[in-house]
Amino acid sequence: MNSEHQYVQLSDGHFIPRLGFGTYKLKEVPNSKTVEATKIAIEAGFRHIDCAYVYQVEEEVGLAVRSKIEDGTVKREDIFYTSKLWSTFHHPNLVQSCLERSLKKLRFDYVDLYLIHFPIAMKPGEELYPKDENGKIIYDSLDLCATWEAMEKCKDAGLAKSIGVSNFNRRQLEMILNKPGLKYKPVCNQVECHVYHNQRKLLDFCKSKDIVLVAYGALGTQRYKEWVDQNSPVLLDDPVLGALAKKHKRSPALIALRYQLQRGVVVLAQSLKENEIKENIQVFDFELTEEDMKVLDGLNRNFRYVAMQSMSDHPNYPFADEY
Ligand SMILES: NC(=O)c1ccc[n+]([C@@H]2O[C@H](COP(=O)([O-])OP(=O)(O)OC[C@H]3O[C@@H](n4cnc5c(N)ncnc54)[C@H](OP(=O)(O)O)[C@@H]3O)[C@@H](O)[C@H]2O)c1
């Protein structure tokens, strides 16, 4: 493996590994699984770990990373760790406290990347999803640009090496990019991206602004019951992915991951299974042809697994526009 090909330079000069290990897990799975899987991922060669305050596994991820540092497998600087600001902490006075809570759980001094997780602010408090008596989410009316300025302060304080956003559409990215007095632009936008929703237009826009697109759900998501329609098609069962897998003697999962790398997308892959984790790192060992890439482009149908319909009444709901 050529390590040069495994990193992309961000607009602020830091480098992000092209393949990341996803750590979101379903509530019913015990947290101890996260410790185990994260250790396996680091041993297998993953150097980029994607997590978030709201996933509630930062303690476990921190434990796994520190144990791999202690046994000499890696140094802290070899690991690229991403955390995300949760929506109940968007108020500029709260932004740094969310990051500090994450750092405390991780027992880290800094994160490599800190993202605004979602462009919708919710009422501050300990509830992750504050709801009214009718079960509707209670929002907070805040200017995303003010939240961004607080993110910039986290970078200046050395608590986050790089800062970016997640689930932003073009309009929201432009709002930050055009903010008067912008100090740092977002280095990346992490969004749902896979062969059924390849984000072609958003990707082109991001590339034109030197913003890296990071793909989540590249393997079709974990089909979490709260967010994903259980009747939606299973991505890895797609016959075209299956045929290309056969042609390249790889799995459909590897074809789906490789597709993203070859179009300049940084890709996340989640799994708690040792065999899958070890397989996913093999994405650097083969190449798709131009023709394969065209065939995979042809699978796009602008289909989102995670639509967050319950928030579609909010003016900042990011998934209403075409991109
Ligand atoms: N920014 C955001 O709002 C946001 C939203 C969602 C996710 N994310 C991030 O993105 C990460 C990835 O997304 P995701 O968790 O939805 O899942 P994903 O990466 O799309 O993976 C979905 C499922 O694919 C299966 N899989 C993995 N490797 C495989 C292999 N080699 N062969 C066959 N099946 C394989 C696993 O299921 P089985 O174990 O059952 O086989 C896994 O649960 C998350 O963990 C999180 O870090 C961010």
UniProtKB/TrEMBL annotation:
Keywords: NADP, Oxidoreductase. The keyword 4Fe-4S does not apply. It holds the Pfam family Aldo_ket_red. GO terms for molecular function: oxidoreductase activity. Substrate binds at H117. The keyword DNA damage does not apply. Transmembrane segments: none annotated. Residues 18-300 form the NADP-dependent oxidoreductase domain. The record marks K84 as: Lowers pKa of active site Tyr. SUPFAM superfamilies: NAD(P)-linked oxidoreductase (SSF51430). The active site is at Y55 (proton donor). InterPro entries: AKR (IPR020471), AKR1C (IPR044482), Aldo/ket_reductase_CS (IPR018170), NAD(P)_OxRdtase_dom_sf (IPR036812), NADP_OxRdtase_dom (IPR023210). Belongs to the aldo/keto reductase family. This is Aldo-keto reductase family 1 member C4. It comes from Marmota monax (Woodchuck).
